[in-house]
Amino acid sequence: MSLTISQLAARGSSTVQAIRFYEREGLLCSPARNSSGYRIYESDALTRLVFIHRAQNLGFSLKEIRDLIGLQTDQDADCTAIRHAAEEKLSVVEEKVADLLRMKEALQVLIGACTGQRPIAQCEILECLSTEGTGQ
User: Fold this and answer.
1) What is the pLDDT of residues 65-99, one digit of tens each?
2) Bridge partners, residue 40, by sequence
3) Residue 70: which of 26, 131, 17 has the closest Cα?
């Protein structure tokens, strides 16, 4: 199956600009061109594009995706390195979730302290945000 760049973008839920960017970044191989100069992609480009998008949706950076692709194409590699990368990403996600929960709790405290009935100069939320050493 051969695809033009616009067909690849449509099939891979991407944009032409993103595909060109991924090529410049070395995440997608530069395709052959037909006699008219159009880029012609094979089906493996679509597979790689889906891989890139799914990895991004899981929070992997482009550098991390490049590393995963390197491991994927290394015939001597095994799943250990991939598992380790996924475990590291999970750890980062868990830290972010914990941070978000702390932020949620702090915001709930701020909102609970605000009556919403005072003039802006006496706003409890603004006062708390402006006060040093509140620990929030």
Assistant:
1) 999 999 988 888 889 989 999 999 999 999 999 99
2) 32
3) 26
